[in-house]
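Aim 2, interim progress: modelling of the pyridoxal-5'-phosphate-bound target.
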Amino acid sequence: MPIPLLDLKAQYKTIRDDVLRVTEEVYESQYFILGPRVDAFERDFAAYCHSKYSVGVSSGTDALLEALMVLGVGHGDEVIVPAYSFFATAGVVDRLGAKPVFVDIDLADYNIDPAKIEEKITARTRAIMPVHLYGQCADMDAINEIAQRRGIPVVEDAAQAVGAEFGGKRAGALGTLGCFSFFPSKNLGGFGDAGAITTSDAAMYEKLVDYRVHGMRPKYFHHYVGGNFRIDALQAAILHVKLPHLDSWTEGRRRNAETYARLFAEAKVSDHIVLPTELEGRRHVFNQYIVRFPAGRETRDRVLEHLKSKAIGCEVYYPLTLPQQKCFAAAAEGSYPNSDTAADQTLAIPIYPELTGEQLEEIVKEIATALP
Ligand SMILES: *Cc1c(COP(=O)(O)O)cnc(C)c1O
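Predicted structure of the complex, ligand included:
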């Protein structure tokens, strides 16, 4: 039996009745964009994130874009981003005419290395944008210390990290603004594109609400040039049905990570594979379970080919660093050795909560088979 990287059908079976009920309610109401269902979801999502407010938006990318717009990022500005992330983290900076300034990552958590941030700050730095990659928070104490001393806002790219914690605080409540994606493969996924921005700053919240609808308040009076960043009522209704299940799904992912740790230890392959570690004071939500093969790209690719031949889902997130992307050639400066290493040596393997013990055993067995 094939084991996919992610199986959303298993999850759907458990929530089908509720999803179909609220979907029909939305159809009957013929109220499709924003409105009371969005308000209700936003209230509960903000509470989940330990934040005062949340604003539902059209995607995770638009959450990042709108957050930077509200902070006034524009032409000639600079935004500090990790050199290793999904494209959107840096793409939104460039779209505003600003320059993404890349900082290398730490291989311990694949997140921006705070020790390398300060040397990249200039008079034009308008924001620091850490990414909580794969579901583990970046070192927010160190990042916030620098940001506060320099008076620079922090935008969390928490797209992969809903429910992740750092020092008992949740992702989205650790910076000035928190950006989430509800892309279907994220831990809280919609039935299409959607996202959210969190904040505990009332003035910032009002601006976020306005920027979402072309900077408009009241109707047809525009104070800012925002955009159409609205979330559908249908997505909010479905996300609201899913939210109460999120903690148990996350526990399933964390349980699978523990099982992997035990199984890989039993397989005696620790010289050949580096497993993800949950750093002290953090709660990892394992949107992805990333293993690294320190022998290098050839070994990684051999394991990848072997798993594919056994119909076991796996994927390289991400094969290129951001500075290696053709469109960012002009913004790349210096070297990003840990990011290069991550791009060459890492592989995502299945971690979704419904995986069975037998499936986890099979995955570990096949990886061990492909190793020397
Ligand atoms: C998914 C993701 C985004 C973008 O979210 P979309 O909803 O796909 O637009 C941004 N940053 C990171 C790190 C992501 O994983």
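The chain has a mean pLDDT of 97. The pocket of pyridoxal-5'-phosphate is lined by residues 59-61, 85-86, 88-89, 131, 157, 159-160, 181, 183, 193, 195 (CB under 6 Å).
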